[in-house]
Amino acid sequence: MLMPSPAVLRGLVEEYETLLAEETLGGAAEPGPRLRDLTYTLCVSTGTRDIRDALAAARTHLATTASAPVTTAAPRSEPPAGRSGPATAPVITLRPAARPAAPAAEAPLAADAAAP
User: Fold this and answer.
1) Fewer C-beta within 10 Å: the chain N or C terminus?
2) CA dihedral (26, 31, 37, 41) positive or negative
3) Cα–Cα–Cα angle for 7, 9, 14, nearest 5°?
4) What is the pTM of this model?
């Protein structure tokens, strides 16, 4: 399953917890729209259906990725081995396929032409 980047997931969890605390202290009877949005996003992001499960999955994911090194691909400064030219891929422009030619008007049949 795809998981959001740890930074995004951490931001969602922190915002959810902050907003939940604010709404709880404010005595809100129903969660506000942003809290509902965060609940939905966390559930979708973690593949769960309940916010408690989503928070547990997010925390587990964050705990396992916190120690993993973050690597990014550095841009190449030289072409790949065995190739000449720029190191970046060429830009490809997609064009719609040509439309088939419209059928020519049918010539009348010989029998139709001879009819009085």
Assistant:
1) C
2) positive
3) 95
4) 0.56
Q: Both tokens of residue 96?
A: 């719609």
Q: Which two tokens stand for residue 78?
A: 């030289």
Task: Name which of 9, 70, 71 is nearest 41 in CA terms.
Answer: 9
Q: How buried is 38 (Cβ within 10 angstroms: 0-12 exposed, 13-18 middle, 19+ buried)?
A: buried
The closest of 58, 36, 56 to 45, measured between CA atoms, is 58
Count CB atoms within 10 A of the CB of residue 23: 16
Q: What is the pLDDT along the chain (116 residues), one digit of tens a residue?
A: 677 889 999 999 999 999 999 988 888 888 899 999 999 999 999 999 999 999 999 999 999 886 555 444 444 455 556 555 544 444 444 455 555 555 555 555 655 555 55
